[in-house]
Structures are given as structure tokens and as C-alpha cells.
Amino acid sequence: xxxxxxxxxxxxxxxxxxxxxxxxxxxxxxxxxxxxxxxxxxxxxxxxxxxxxxxxxxxxxxxxxxxxxxxxxxxxxxxxxxxxxxxxxxxxxxxxxxxxxxxxxxxxxxxxxxxxxxxxxxxxxxxxxxxxxxxxxxxxxxxxxxxxxxxxxxxxxxxxxxxxxxxxxxxxxxxxxxxxxxxxxxxxxxxxxxxxxxxxxxxxxxxxxxxxxxxxxxxxxxxxxxxxxxxxxxxxxxxxxxxxxxxxxxxxxxxxxxxxxxxxxxxxxxxxxxxxxxxxxxxxxxxxxxxxxxxxxxxxxxxxxxxxxxxxxxxxxxxxxxxxxxxxxxxxxxxxxxxxxxxxxxxxxxxxxxxxxxxxxxxxxxxxxxxxxxxxxxxxxxxxxxxxxxxxxxxxxxxxxxxxxxxxxxxxxxxxxxxxxxxxxxxxxxxxxxxxxxxxxxxxxxxxxxxxxxxxxxxxxxxxxxxxxxxxxxxxxxxxxxxxxxxxxxxxxxxxxxxxxxxxxxxxxxxxxxxxxxxxxxxxxxxxxxxxxxxxxxxxxxxxxxxxxxxxxxxxxxxxxxxx
Length: 564
Ligand SMILES: Cc1cc2nc3c(=O)[nH]c(=O)nc-3n(C[C@H](O)[C@H](O)[C@H](O)COP(=O)(O)OP(=O)(O)OC[C@H]3O[C@@H](n4cnc5c(N)ncnc54)[C@H](O)[C@@H]3O)c2cc1C
Description:
Among the domains are: 138 residues, Butyryl-Coa Dehydrogenase, subunit A, domain 1 (Orthogonal Bundle), CATH 1.10.540; 120 residues, Butyryl-CoA Dehydrogenase, subunit A, domain 2 (Beta Barrel); 127 residues. Helices cover 57% and strands 11% of the residues. The chain has 20 helices and nine strands. The strands form two sheets. Strands 3, 4, 5, 6, 7, 8 and 9 form a seven-stranded mixed β-sheet that branches. A two-stranded antiparallel sheet has the order 1-2.
């Protein structure tokens, strides 16, 4: 069984050559001192830590899994020691502010770290996966008292956090949440209710766990506007235990290294975070950060599956591939068979474009935070709002479906456990569901973000993506036209945008993939000796096997608009 190995040179190529990130980030006063060399050093060290400490725990995480007994969760062997090493080395604090105990480095380095972590060990990575979002949430919405108590611990990762939204009857529709918060005379609140599917609701990785919980005040209106956000720790600062209980963990298809907990809040004494009735608003920072992280899970898991499949295909021999001479020593390798080559090159095209888009999104996040220029802040806001749901959806979809294609490269050897690729397929499936299902992402893009301004924001995003080829220009034109057609057809059939939202999201995603690959190709130089096999083959796969989906999606949307 081969273990995932971070390929930091390729990641750094995307960061520095394709996106020119060091120069771009240095233009922000906050990162004036962060040069290409420093970024490369951090990346190399992160790759070493992930490869040596986190990746080897993946199999035990799956086979032994997290265990629940008498209300407490024990994590799989090695997980706790690895987490302690992780936070003590400062990894969770990479992008946190120095005044809170962080390192103040660009968000893109954190994003690259989490891509590697997810690829190496999705289950383990779930625990710190939402930590930075929780830190940002408390930093922006917490009272001074809360910040004094919790911010440093969250910034450094000494304590981990949860996001408690889902209830048995309230999944995609959080407005149905019933967990209640009753004001106490001292200004705190007693929170009661049951939350389900809570990742890392209990564990033994850290001494304390900080729960961020959506709940409803007694006089709150029904629906999402009646939700407020509360913070309740497992242990209060005086060491006493809160009335938060982990009643069980779920048996599930994959992701066994991450405990998915049923959490009972039994008049748990809590602090409000932000204003009453603005809970979803306060949670928004955390949810958006989590969506980007889930997109990275997709990219990382697909890379892990591809690495395994590629290595296997370079060893396994079956029949001579068509078009290869008898004398060629490689003619019978699985990797030489056109059907298998197609699978491998196609996944590579998704992974490489995924990196360009995810790293660019992280750079835009820093522009939102640190740019002194209001115009570039607004452009960055637009990029993140429109591109984040697209990435969450297309890369989680590809991790599962492309991961399954990678399993196919092994034949029967992929279906049995030996090579570990079946674990990736099982683990990856959930990423299409949590953090807002992929259907909800599509509705978020088309119905909440594109149609309300008549497509103006989307058109501005497209204007910002230079198109170097006539085919790319035509696709962009077609996307603009189909946006207008949907807007008009929606006046006749209000359900239409909900029916075609997924087609629309895929079409936007394919235009973004095309842009990402145009940027990669423009960055290749003749000295890159492995250009042909490493970069040109996936570039061709994009044209042959991926982009044709764009016309199919548009044809579906055209037919729906005409029928409306
Ligand atoms: C392993 C795991 C970890 C999780 N971790 C957390 C966590 O840490 N914190 C937390 O709060 N939650 C967590 N969740 C919950 C997760 O976010 C929810 O499962 C998800 O939001 C979907 O809710 P649901 O399962 O109730 O499905 P439902 O909302 O009942 O949806 C069922 C189906 O209907 C579709 N659907 C629903 N509404 C619409 C609509 N308006 N338009 C179109 N289609 C729709 C959905 O896309 C889905 O396909 C986790 C779940 C899992 C499985």
C-alpha cells in the first residue's frame, strides 16, 4: 500500500509561477516581509510534517476508528500525539494574527497545508478543519470577555472547536432549528437541545473543546432570523464541566477517524456571540471558511487517489497497449492503455486546476482582509462569493467520482482494501453532503448570487478572467447569454432556476477550469523538462474529456428555458 506523499514542488509552482502569489501578497502591507523563499520554506516543512506524522495514521484511523464509551470519545491510535505535535509546532496558528498568538502568514499557506492534510488523512484533519473559522468568528463577533477567555486558545489550536448547526429535523433548512437559549440573570444563557452529526463533538485530542451553537431565544421569530449564536466550552475556565454531553457517535460509510457526534445540551451555560437574531450572520465567516476547506478536501483526496493509481499503473502489466511497438518495454503497462491514460490525465487536470482556483481564492481572502484599496476589496469579495460554492461542489464531486475512476485503474485490486484507494472513495463521499449539500451550493450560486443582480456580478467576474483562445471566449459568451435566458425564463417559471442550478454551477466551474489551465500553460517554460508528460497531457485531457461537458450543460439549460 503506497502512502500519500505531498508534492510540494508542484504546489509551489502553482503558487509562485502560475499565480505569482509572493509578489501579489507583498503588495499588501501585512505581508511586506513574506517573500517567495519564506513561503517555500513553510511549504516544505508542512509537507514533511504531513508526510511523516499524519499520513501514516490514516489506515488505523479507518480500521480502528474513533470509539465512544460512557459519553467519551477516544480517537484512533496516534491521533492525539500527532495533534499535540501539530499545535505545538504552530501549524494551526499559521494565518492567525500575531496579537492573538498566531504567525500572521498569508491564508494561502494555510490552504496548502490543509490540502495536504486532507489528502494524507481526511479523518484526522476533520478535527482542526474548522478551527480557523471558529477563531475568525470569535475574533469578529465575540465580546471582549469572550476574546480574553478563548481567542488565544483558538488561534494557537491548543483547544479545538465544533460547529453545532444540524438537528434531527433541521439539516439544509437551519431555520427549523429548535435548540433554545434562555437568558440567565447574570447575562449568560442556558442552552438546551440536541444537535446531530457534529464533527469532533467529543475527543481526547485537546484538554478543552469550544462549541459554537445555533439556538433560539424565547421571543425569537421562527425561521433563520430567529437564530442566535452561543459559545459553550466542554470545561469552563474554572475547570468545571459544562452540561454538554456526547450521547453517541454514528456508524458511517467512511471517515471513521472523525467522530460524528450526537450532542445533548442540557441547560448548558453559554455566552452569546454577536447580536441576538444574527447567529447565521456570525456563523457565516465560519461556514465560508469551512466551504473552502471542504473544496480542499476534494482536491487533496483526488490527488491522493491519483498518486496511488498512477504508481500502480506504472507497475502493473496487462496486454500490449494499441499503437505501441512490440519492442517497447513499457507497451504492456496499464498506464499505456488509452482508457487508463484518459482516467489518469483527466484527474490530473482537475487537481491542477483545483489548486489554481483554491490558492487564488485564498489570496483573494487576504485582499478582503488587508487591502487598503476598496475597489480591490470589492473585487475579492465578488470572487470569493461566486467561486467558493462552485469549488466546494465541483471538487467534492470529482473527489468521489474521479476517486472511483482511480479505483478502476486497479481493477479488482482497487476494490479490495490492500491499496487503500477504496477508503478514499468512501471517505470522499461525505464532502458532497456536508457544509451545505452540493444542491444547496448550486442554489446559492444561481438563485442567491447571480440572478438577484441580473448577472452583473457574474459578468464582472468573467471580465476579470482573461481569455486567450477563441474557444474560451465563446464559452464565456455562451455563459453570459444563458444567464440572461434563465433570468427571463424565471419570470415565466419560478421553479426553473432550481431545476437547472446544478447545470449552471457546472458550466461556471468549467469556465473557471479553462481559465486556470490557460494560466498554467502560460507559465510553463521550455526548461521544464517534464512538461510533456506532466503538464501537456492533462492540458489535452481538459480539452478532450472535460470541457465538452460545457456544451451539454448549456444545451440542457437552453431546452429548459425554451420549455418554460
Ligand atoms: C460525517 C458528517 C459530518 C457532519 N458534520 C457536521 C458538523 O460538524 N456540524 C453540523 O452542524 N452539521 C454537520 N453535518 C451535517 C450536514 O451538514 C448535513 O447532513 C447537511 O447539511 C444536509 O442536511 P441533512 O442531512 O439533514 O439532509 P436534508 O437537508 O434533509 O437533505 C436531503 C436531500 O435533499 C436535498 N435538499 C434539501 N433541501 C433542498 C433544497 N432547498 N433544494 C434542493 N435540494 C434540497 C439535499 O441536497 C439532500 O440531497 C455532518 C454530516 C455528516 C454526514
